[in-house]
Amino acid sequence: MRLSMKFTEKLSGPRVVVFSEVTDFENLQEKFPDLFVSIRVTKRSKTSAVTEEKFSVLGTVVSQRSRHTMRRPTTHTVEILTGDLGGSRVVERYSDGPCGTTIVKVEADFLLGGLLSILPQFMVRPMIESGLRRVFRDLEARLSGSRA
Questions:
Q1: What is the pLDDT of residues 87-137, one digit of tens each?
Q2: CA-based torsion, 106, 32, 69, 15: positive or negative
Q3: Are 77 and 68 contacting, i.e. CB atoms less than 8 angstroms apart?
Q4: How far from 32 is each of 4, 72, 87, 96, CA to CA, in Å?
Q5: I need a surface site. Which of 27, 61, 83, 147 has the fewest CB within 10 A?
Q6: Would you call 97 exposed, middle or buried from its count of C-beta atoms within 10 A (0-12, 13-18, 19+)?
Q7: In angstroms, rounded to a whole number, what is the distance separating the alpha carbons of residues 140 and 9?
Q8: Structure letter (DSSP) for residue 148
Q9: CA dist 57 to 37, 107, 108, 145, Å?
């Protein structure tokens, strides 16, 4: 089953900072412990990384391998190579917003497998979208807290 979604987030930090936080794969588990059970970088270059990630969905730990391609500080593309979302792709586009803010436009095309393929789409869509949005909400809280 395929599931496509688009949404936009506005973050209070500058684009370079926001982009760096999202693509700091080595420290994502520490920064977002409620989201990631574990994340390990297996390959890294200036413009790409391959990660092995574990996160919890409906009380089940899901594992996947992903390729991240970055065009700093404007585009982060995630291709999910293995796992229940294998074959999926998420593209995040970062632009400058007003007064030093950042606008992130997310376009995702998910190919659902495993447990996610047997659940009805009305359950899966909000679960996946809220997981994606949560990264940005948690990041916004971190950015706001660092200025307080």
A1: 999 999 999 999 999 999 999 999 988 877 888 888 888 888 888 888 899
A2: positive
A3: yes
A4: 25, 22, 24, 24
A5: 147
A6: middle
A7: 10
A8: -
A9: 11, 21, 18, 27
For residue 135, the number of C-alpha atoms closer than 13 Å in the C-beta half-sphere is 19
CB-neighbour burial class of residue 92 (10 A; exposed 0-12, middle 13-18, buried 19+): buried
Neighbours of 66 (CB within 10 A): 22
Cα–Cα dist 10/106, whole Å: 11
Domains present along the chain, CATH in parentheses = 2-147 (3.30.530.20)
- The tens digit of pLDDT for each residue in 14-54 reads 999 999 999 999 999 998 888 889 999 999 999 999 999 99
CA 17 – CA 107 distance, rounded (Å): 21
Alpha helix ranges (H) inside the chain: 15-22, 28-31, 115-118, 121-147
- Locate tokens 């047997």: which residue? 118
Q: Pull the structure tokens for residue 127.
A: 């679960």
